[in-house]
Specification:
The protein starts with 31 loop residues before the first strand and ends with a strand. It contains 12 helices and 27 strands. It is an alpha/beta fold and 565 residues long. The protein is 18% helix and 22% strand. β24 (498-501), α12 and β25 form a beta-alpha-beta unit. The protein has helices spanning 143-152, 168-172, 184-187, 199-207, 227-235, 283-291, 369-382, 429-439, 454-458, 470-473, 485-493, 511-523, and strands spanning 32-35, 56-61, 71-77, 83-85, 118-125, 140-141, 160-165, 196-197, 212-215, 240-243, 256-261, 264-265, 270-272, 274-279, 295-297, 301-302, 323-330, 335-343, 349-351, 401-408, 426-427, 447-451, 482-483, 498-501, 527-530, 543-548, 559-564. It folds into 2 domains: 19-46 and 81-292, Glucose Oxidase, domain 1, CATH 3.50.30; 343-564, 3-Layer(bba) Sandwich (Glucose Oxidase, domain 1), CATH 3.50.30.
């Protein structure tokens, strides 16, 4: 069984990772992104190997006669791939009467302060420990390793994130059956286990004031019997962990900006996440903002009693609802381990080009007659609709990050006549040009965020939450403001590669307008980030980051959005 649950003057961020996680180009002086996340796929050892539900992706909606979109049903446990542990993994909630209970027992993934997710990466080389132990046993990182690093570089302190680089995931995270070496064989005591800190080392790092500790091992838990103690010593002191990182060899010992973030699962004691770093460029400014806790969370909480998933117009057009499934009770914490079932566009999520664009060679006759007619209209107005195989894991992290340009379109609310419902007020090129006239031209690499106020106003527990999606798409209330295809085309000409909204979708409630918008986004090679919240808290200058979980072949991308300012 797994361990016991126990900035600012930013830029057009560039030079990120290309497909497969390799650098596309050298640092241009603006900062180089390094993806530190494991790929999540059914043929990889991405899920804890003893009794936990396996990762599964059902490609249940495909472009064709029934839908002009692709989407996937995900079964994903928080202990999947690169992951984050938060204090309730070891700390019972206050009032439970259990040992170590306290306020940190309520700091679930949905309540973890965003400033704990970011900081300066302090990379400690412990590669000499790899495989230096008997079968089934972990080589131990001692506090002496940390002290030696401090003597060579600098003392650890508040706002630092320690990353223990052993090279374990780089060497052993492979497709199955070779991938059994990553988890299964060490658990079967047939090979040495992964390097990890011992309890004394964790205490030392926590007392130095670090914000978080990460490792490129499958878990922050040394085999065979120190996992619970190590978790307790860190999480009881308010640290958060990154487990299952990779590519740490690509980071300098100090000076890189580090970020780890994943969906805000309600009462989640751990969760799947995406980790990355920025080397050079504006890293110093971002680190300073992180130390000063100038970080805003822009993601909705993932809770089953909230309107997270497209309900569809009428009957039997809905997507799979967000579902939490309990499967293992932890008496020491009085909580269950749980997995989640969700559509890949649930909550705050990515829209990659392959969401609405078919792959090369697609025959348009496979569309329904109605969509074929829409496509003719679209191509008369805008030219050929593109094709794409760009799913979530192929979208470079720099494309979903950059200088935030928040366009306030709330004055449009109330403009759609009731007799025309279902309809959304249209965000046009004129609205974007008016914003540019007032604040300055958009620059290539900026991230344009439409502030509609819709999710802030209507994301509430059901049934009141029907006002968020179900009522608007069924013509019972006005839809949320949404950009038309011309507006997206205008943004593409400005060099914008990512567009976000604090509404459920960028397409709005009219199906034809929505499809035109998504076709334009994909054809221009742009991506969307939907279902944001709290855009009103951002100052004039802020840096936006969104990172989806790195799921192979996913046509959506659940994740988390933050901003530093």
């Amino acid at each position: 069984m797994k361990k016991r649950l126990p900035i600012l003057t930013l830029l057009a961020l560039a030079m990120a990772l290309g497909q497969g996680g390799t650098a596309r180009a050298a640092d241009s002086g603006q900062g180089r992104f390094v993806d530190l996340s494991l790929i999540v796929a059914e043929n990889y050892p991405c899920t804890w190997a003893t009794g936990f539900p396996r990762f599964y992706m059902n490609r249940y909606i495909r472009i064709g006669p029934s839908s002009p979109y692709n989407s996937d049903l995900l079964q994903i446990d928080g202990n999947t791939g690169t992951q984050i542990d938060v204090p309730p993994h070891s700390i019972p909630r206050p009032g439970s009467g259990l040992k170590n209970a306290g306020p940190l027992g309520l700091e679930y993934t949905d309540r973890t302060p965003a400033w704990k997710l970011v900081g300066e990466a302090c990379v400690i080389d412990v590669t000499a420990l790899l495989d230096q132990a008997p079968n089934g046993v972990s080589p131990l990182v001692k506090k002496e390793h940390i002290i030696a690093w401090e003597k060579k570089h600098r003392p650890l302190g508040q706002g630092d994130i320690v990353l223990l680089w052993s090279g374990y995931s780089d060497k052993y995270y492979r497709p199955m059956p070779e991938g059994r070496r990553f988890l299964a064989l060490p658990l079967e005591k047939k090979t040495p286990a992964w390097p990890d800190p011992d309890p004394e080392c964790m205490v030392y790092m926590a007392k130095k004031g670090v914000t978080a500790v990460g490792c490129d091992s499958p878990t922050m838990g040394p085999m065979p019997d120190l996992a619970a103690a190590v978790h307790d010593e860190g999480l009881l002191r308010g640290l958060v962990f990154t487990e299952g990182a990779t590519n740490l060899r690509k980071l300098p010992p100090t000076g890189a900006f580090y970020c780890m973030m994943g969906p805000r699962h309600f009462e989640g004691p751990y969760g799947e996440c995406r980790a990355f770093a920025i080397v050079g460029g504006q890293a110093k400014d971002l680190i300073k903002a992180a130390r000063e806790k100038r970080v805003a969370d822009l993601s909705v909480v993932m809770a089953a009693n909230h309107p997270l998933t497209w309900p569809g117009r009428g009957v039997s057009r809905h997507r799979h609802p967000y579902t939490r499934a309990d499967f293992f009770y932890e008496p020491a914490l009085d909580i269950f381990h749980h997995t989640h079932l969700m559509d890949s566009h649930a909550g705050t999520h990515l829209v990659p080009p392959a969401y609405a664009l078919p792959g090369p060679g697609f025959k348009n006759k496979k569309y329904s007659p109605e969509v074929r007619q829409w496509l003719k209209e679209y191509e008369v107005r805008f030219g050929k609709r593109g094709t794409s195989r760009t799913t979530a894991e192929k979208v470079p992290l720099d494309q979903t990050s950059g200088n935030a340009r928040v366009i306030d379109v709330r004055p449009l609310v109330g403009r759609a006549e009731g007799s025309q419902w279902p309809a959304s007020p249209v965000i046009t090129t004129a609205h974007i040009e008016a914003y540019e006239k007032k604040t300055g031209k958009l620059a290539p690499g900026d991230v344009v965020l439409f502030r509609t106020g819709h999710v802030d106003a209507h994301f509430k527990p059901l049934p009141e939450g029907k006002a968020c999606m179900e009522n608007p798409i069924n013509g019972l209330s006005e839809g949320w403001p949404a950009p038309d295809a011309e507006a997206i085309q205008h943004l593409a000409k400005r060099g914008i590669r990512c567009v976000g909204t604090d509404a459920p979708t960028l397409g709005g409630v009219d199906p034809k307008q929505a499809l035109f918008t998504y076709w334009m986004l994909g054809t221009q090679g742009m991506v969307g980030v939907e279902f944001l919240t709290g855009l009103g808290q951002l100052p004039a200058k802020a840096v936006f980051f969104f990172a989806p979980v790195k799921i192979k072949g996913c046509h959506g991308g659940p994740g988390r959005a933050i901003a530093l300012y």
